[in-house]
Design goal:
Helices cover about 75% and strands about 0% of the residues. It is mainly alpha-helical. The two termini are about 15 Å apart. The chain is built from 14 helices and no strands. The radius of gyration is 20 Å and the shape is globular. It has one domain.
């Protein structure tokens, strides 16, 4: 084994150790809040728990495929679904490392390693996040109108208008700052019809996530239809809160606090605490299981599938 391969292996081990530390750091404070008696009292039913986990994995896979589609459209370079899944799930571990740029940087580096434009991969990631957040805000206003009132709609509309104005001014910006010309050229490949299609696709992903979370919560407590709707809105509020909390690792604390407080409307405090803490384990499982039961992390340099 040559020096380059040794360094690659050392880097992979270091990355795994760093991600593991990040996950433990993220989970430990929440797990400390729940006693063994609480978990024993609210044991999840196996079937809805398994089904919800499979749907959650499908949600992540769906996002990976959407990111792949946007990257291909922006960069004009096709790459395999397998590569897209590997890049998405491996780089996703970066959210457990302190610093919000690791996930985006990981996507860019891994995309470049397989011959895809790092600029296209990064732009696709940012556009995907924008679409997911804005559709989530509108979804939240629709499903849980009493929580945020008109604020989510106003924020989403303002963000969409701002992006639209920026898109219209892209050529003016390129004339002023030559270095942004490559990014502008990529945006020229994205038509309004395509942008609307991707945006609606991310709106659908909120429905997938809501179904998964309602099933997950129902595995712990029984919910009627009104309560299910509240839970479907709760996941949007808590997920968006954790996503936008730039000071927190993987939304640590923010997501669980929002989720627990909102769940108090439909269940007892101990049940709300168990569900909110268990949801962190559930989300981590949804991200790690595709890596655990697939060759996504293996070194496949011979087949042009090398990782970071």
């Amino acid at each position: 084994m040559n020096a380059k391969k040794v360094l690659l292996r050392v880097g992979q081990v270091a990355l795994i150790a760093l991600v593991t530390w990040g996950i433990i750091r993220a989970l430990a404070p929440d797990l400390a809040k729940v006693s063994a008696r609480d978990f024993a009292r609210y044991q999840p039913a196996a079937i809805p728990l398994v089904v919800s986990t499979l749907i959650l994995i499908g949600f992540y896979v769906y996002h990976a495929l959407l990111w792949r589609g946007i990257t291909i459209q922006l960069g004009g370079q096709r790459f395999s679904v397998r590569d897209a899944l590997r890049i998405y799930f491996v780089s996703g571990l970066g959210r457990y490392i302190p610093g919000k740029l690791w996930q985006v940087a990981g996507m860019a580096v891994m995309a470049q390693r397989i011959g895809i434009s790092a600029v296209a991969a990064t732009a696709a990631t940012l556009l995907a996040q924008f679409a997911f957040v804005t559709t989530g805000l509108l979804y939240l206003a629709l499903v849980l109108p009493d929580w945020g009132g008109a604020a989510p709609i106003i924020i989403a509309v303002a963000a969409l208008v701002g992006l639209g104005l920026s898109y219209r001014a892209r050529h003016w910006a390129a004339r002023k700052v030559k270095r942004v010309q490559p990014a502008v050229d990529m945006l020229d490949r994205l038509s309004l019809a395509a942008a609307v299609k991707w945006w609606l696709a991310y709106a659908v992903s909120w429905i997938i996530l809501a179904v998964a979370f309602v099933l997950f919560t129902s595995s712990f407590v029984t919910l009627d239809f009104t309560q299910q709707r509240h839970v479907a809105g709760t996941i949007a509020a808590s997920y968006l809160g954790g996503l936008l909390a730039f000071f927190s690792i993987a939304g640590l604390g923010v997501r669980e606090a929002l989720m627990g407080s909102l769940l108090l409307s439909v269940m007892s405090p101990p049940a709300a605490l168990v569900v909110s803490v268990a949801s962190r384990l559930w989300f981590v499982a949804g991200e790690l299981l595709p890596l655990s039961f697939s060759p996504l992390l293996r070194d496949a340099r011979a087949s042009h599938n090398s990782d970071i």
